[in-house]
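B., you asked whether I could sanity-check this one before it goes into the benchmark set. Here's the sequence:
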Amino acid sequence: MEQLINFTPTFQLQEHIFLAPLFAIIFFVLFKTFFMSSSPPIYLVDYSCFKPPNFWRLPFSSFLEHSRIVHSLDQQSVDFMTKVLVSSGQSQSTCIPPPLHYIPPRSTHEDAIKEAQIVLFTVFEDLLSKTRISPRDIDIIIVNCSGFCSSPSLSAIIVNRYSMRDNIKSFNISGMGCSASALAVDMAKNLLKVHKNSNAVILSTEILSNGWYAGTDRSMMVLNCLFRSGGAAVLITNKTSAKRISKYRLLYAQRTQGAFDDIAYNSAIREEDSEGIIGVTLKKDVLHVAGELLRSNFQVLGSLILPMEEKIRYGFSVIRRKFLDKSIELYVPNFRKVIQHYCLPTSGKSVITEIGKKMKLKEEEIEAALMTLHRFGNQSSSSLWYELAYMEGKEMVKKGERVLQLGMGSGPKCTSLVWECNRPIVNEAHKGPWADSIHNYPVKC
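And here's what the prediction gave me:
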């Protein structure tokens, strides 16, 4: 009995010695899971959009006259371009760079570099002024331009111009089409997971001086009618000190790729026409491809953000269609339950209205996209920021509300971003690209 009494404390001591490292391991795993592996929030501090000078403006009449003279177009081709312009949803106030106002248009490498400098330097300096940071405070810079790839790169031109740090992480994205700016945000988000306490700047534009199609193939002439000048600079950060001043916090970023499919891959492609002139061909099935890509992207995004009720309704519709009646249309989840504002691709009025119809959006929810297209035209990937500027100018976005930015481009690819408004955004009407025109909107287009 005495031996048993003497043994008990020894056994308890051995038990504690065994449990101590076990608790230490559990604590380490929990700490790593919930603290070390969790990324800091990504904030959008502010952004700036390029407003083309008034002398860049190109009314329809000037565009058609120049096209007729330069390309020796027959009346049927002129009528085709007129139809595209009138139905596009653009106004007479859209702009193209000065080299394309010449007869014949100038399309040299030097002209493209000058256009890039005018657009990118302007928006970058305006962003620095707004956010009160120095070029040397920037840790990551990403420049996207789909059709023009200079050497040195556009990102190198920015680094050189502003004498940025020798250890800055610089990236140049080309060939990504209208999805590039949203894609660059996703790229910056991933970089900021690795580089703590850092600032990232994204510069988005599309250089038109070297992208003008000088042939007569109608499938390639469409982009001459639609693409217009624009550019944006965006500052995002993972610094906790930026929470108070930042406009938005990034909640989700979802990318979808469709290049594995031959039909989708060739639906919008840069190639030579029968005369050897380079342009971008838009195939007839491009809208169908875009619709399928959008569906694929939203399936994943919806699984992340939609309430359970919407997920269940969508799931039941999939089962019914697969096992009971294949003619039944799939239920379209109501994203309006979790997202209040939408920045859609400005590829054309019909594209915007069709996306809105598929997503069951109200007229006021596609207003920003339609008005951006009307005032500025299709500015490729930077259009998303003009739409957001329109919403802010109209004081539509309230603190706590969510904004969806949807970028879709050739490849094809789709990137969706969901932002949450971080603070009240007021008194923006007199700033930015809409300063002299927002009081005229919305208009019927």
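One thing to flag: The radius of gyration is 26 Å. Otherwise nothing jumped out at me.
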